[in-house]
TrEMBL record:
Keywords: Ion transport, NAD, Potassium, Potassium transport, Transport. This is Trk system potassium uptake protein TrkA. PANTHER family: POTASSIUM CHANNEL PROTEIN 2-RELATED-RELATED, TRK SYSTEM POTASSIUM UPTAKE PROTEIN TRKA. Residues 137-218 form the RCK C-terminal domain. SUPFAM superfamilies: NAD(P)-binding Rossmann-fold domains, TrkA C-terminal domain-like. The lineage of its organism: Bacteria, Bacillati, Actinomycetota, Actinomycetes, Kitasatosporales. Residues 1-117 form the RCK N-terminal domain. Pfam families: TrkA_C, TrkA_N.
């Protein structure tokens, strides 16, 4: 898979390194000469250019990319790169970094963004995830379809503990993606039984989050505590 990353700072280089280890073809683009540090990511292609300019993106052959990641420290730049990647070059997947949470509402399909990653929001979500059991934590927002990646740790004595995944009446527009059990990462199987302490990752429509949280609570909705 060919991936272009706009922004060769610490974030862009870190992403490039991870993707290269997974066997992907990486192009790093930055307009600042001091940011072009080929020796730090020697396996990547490098381009000294302004990613907001059509001529630069032509030179980068963006139409050949499967994914574009707008990873600069400037939200305006990331939005422009995302819009150009999607509308001018038809890039199938555009991921954009949100630096200021106040701008998060702009990072949607209108600007060509498929996935918006807000570092401050993600950090706060991970803190919540580390200390919250039984509460739904939103980790990532997907622009298309108004869906989110959410996590919930199944609390002790949860109503669904011991229930087979295939027997759960999951809410509409909700998909269980992964079960993290201790050090194991499990691809959900209909015959797998849920256990208290399981970290459950879902892709869910925002409108279904409350319903999902109720389903996974200690008592089923509508049951009495007596």
């Amino acid at each position: 898979m060919r991936v272009a990353i706009a922004g060769a700072g610490a974030v862009g280089r870190s992403i490039a390194g991870e993707l290269l280890e997974n066997g992907h073809e990486i192009l790093l683009i930055d307009k600042t000469p001091t940011a072009i540090s080929v020796e730090r990511v020697p396996q990547a292609e490098w381009l000294l250019a302004d990613a907001c300019e059509i001529t630069s993106l032509d030179e980068a052959a963006l139409q050949r990319c499967n994914v574009v990641i707008a990873a600069t420290g400037d939200d305006k730049v990331n939005l422009v790169v995302s819009l150009l990647a999607k509308t001018e070059y038809g890039v199938p997947r555009v991921v954009a970094r949100v630096n200021n949470p106040k701008n998060e509402w702009l990072f949607n399909e209108s600007w060509g963004v498929d996935v918006a990653v807000s570092t401050p929001r993600l950090m706060s979500a991970l803190v919540e995830e580390a200390v919250s059991v039984g509460d739904l934590v939103r980790l990532l927002r997907f622009s298309h379809g108004d869906a989110n990646l959410v996590e919930l740790t199944l609390p002790p004595e949860a109503a669904l503990a011991g229930t087979r995944v295939g027997d759960v009446d999951w809410p509409e527009d909700t998909s269980l993606v992964t079960i993290i059990r201790g050090t194991r990462v499990l691809a959900p199987n209909p015959d797998d039984a849920l256990e208290a302490g399981d970290e459950l990752l879902f892709v869910a429509a925002q409108a279904r989050e409350e319903q999902l949280e109720d389903l996974l609570s200690v008592r089923r909705p509508g049951t009495s505590g007596d």
